[in-house]
Here is the input.
Amino acid sequence: MPGAVLFLYMTCERYTVCMRKASEDAYVSEVMRRLIGRYSDKLQTELVHRNITELFVAVLLSPQCSDKQVNVVTKSLFKKYSGFEDYANADLRALKRDLSGLNYYKTKARNLRKAARMIMSRFDGEVPRTIDQLMELHGVGRKVANVILNEGFGISEHGIAIDTHCITVSRRLGLTRHKTADRIELDLMRKVPKRDWKIISNLLIALGRDTCTARTKFCGRCVLKDICPSSTERNHATSTLSSG
Ligand code: SF4
Here is the structure.
């Protein structure tokens, strides 16, 4: 390819990439604007807690359960166990009974006691503040660690908590093509401005619980119906993005 043609080709390529990035940024920013407007009361976790210890326990117990289910169980749990020392010294059979309202309660009871013991012995009874240290604890995966850092310490620069709602919704919104939480987290970290990492997860969860459920899409009453690429209503509505 002659030099001048190659130069022109590369310039056009770069221009196309820039334009694509600009329209992607505009799309993400409009999605965020609308979700914040619609779900302003859902920017924080719905897991009831009064301090970092209770948050840690609630989040550790939350996988495969609804927040409501966890809140029912922790209401009495937090009265009986006041801190990590209590969980570390708990009788395992009694702890399993106390958690029996949750899915996988036997595993969760074992993990909670082991995590509490490690927090007492390695971290002086304090919840660690780094994702690597958190993930050393039993039952703590990347999602749980991200939620604890974000909600408990206001630290969101390590990543974005991805749950099943986030997976479903971000795929439908065209924010990712991937199916695994790790890959989706990377896509969102690339596309969503860092300042929004703290809230994006709870917003996608709110949307997933409200209109964009795993089983059914209620696009007709969704705030993103005119811009979402998976919307069943898109042809009926006028996109404010395309119309400027
Ligand atoms: S428009 Fe439909 S598919 Fe898109 S986010 Fe809303 S409910 Fe989900």
About this structure: The chain has eleven helices and no strands. The longest helix spans residues 3-38. The radius of gyration is 22 Å. Residues 30 and 130 are 32 Å apart (CA to CA).
